[in-house]
Amino acid sequence: MKKLRRIGLGLVASLLSISLVACGSTKEEQKQGSAKQEQKQMGKEQKKLEQKLFKLESEYEEYTKEKGYMESDDYLVFEAAFNILAKSIESKNILQGDDGELDKHLKDLKTEIDHLSNNQAIKAQKRYGSAVDVYEAAIGTHMHIVLTKADITQHFNAVNTIELDKDFNADSYDYEKIDADATEAIKSIQGMPMKRIKLIKEELEKYKASFSTEEYNQLNSAVTSVTSSLNKQVEMLEVLQKESGKDKSTLEENTKAAETQFLDAKEKVSAFESKYDIQM
């Protein structure tokens, strides 16, 4: 009986030992499998960043293929895409105007991406295309340029300059000069500011997924308001081109409308920037 009991106890101990070894082995295998999966995921994130860089390199070649340099409109789009990627990896290699060394900037950015740790690559991929980065890189600067041009509350605004000059010399003002000044001011508004507005709209649409629906609508509404303000100012300048511009009621009505639209745009932009503590 004692022998049988010893055999039984030994068998139980052996089975328990085998079970513990198997359990430990399973846990170790699970741990190794998890590590491999994590490593695989990290490799994917690194690959995604490399693909974004490759796309930038291809766009650079395409933009410069014909003339050997990048047109200003193309550069603004390229700069935004480059800086969004650079910001995602927390690079100091940020473009601030075409310095003629874009190929060097691309090589430097590639080096930085190649030397990212796995954790840095994952962090960068999560950050890529954030609302703040997209706004700062692709929208904010253009928005402020347009707002400055549309600011009819300032004395240097083209409409105010011509109107004040005209009032000061009401009896002897040269209407040919008014016509020339107003024509130049209209060209100025319909040139760069309207081009920037078009660019803002395109960038907003391209990076729409970076913003919440509320944020997208807020910025889109700001663009609509500032566009309306500038269009209203063009109407006022067209009135000032004619002697009928002596009728102050039309100008006052349009001035109020242009100012209201400008202030609405400015308020919406300020609200968005305040939300993220953006300083531009």
TrEMBL record:
Keyword terms of this UniProt record: Signal
Q: Where is this region: Disordered?
A: 28-47
Say yes or no: keyword Signal present: yes
Signal sequence annotation: 1-24
Family matches, as PROSITE patterns = PROKAR_LIPOPROTEIN
Q: What is this protein called?
A: Lipoprotein
Please report the organism this UniProt entry assigns to the protein: Priestia megaterium (strain ATCC 14581 / DSM 32 / CCUG 1817 / JCM 2506 / NBRC 15308 / NCIMB 9376 / NCTC 10342 / NRRL B-14308 / VKM B-512 / Ford 19) (Bacillus megaterium)
What lineage does the source organism belong to? Bacteria, Bacillati, Bacillota, Bacilli, Bacillales
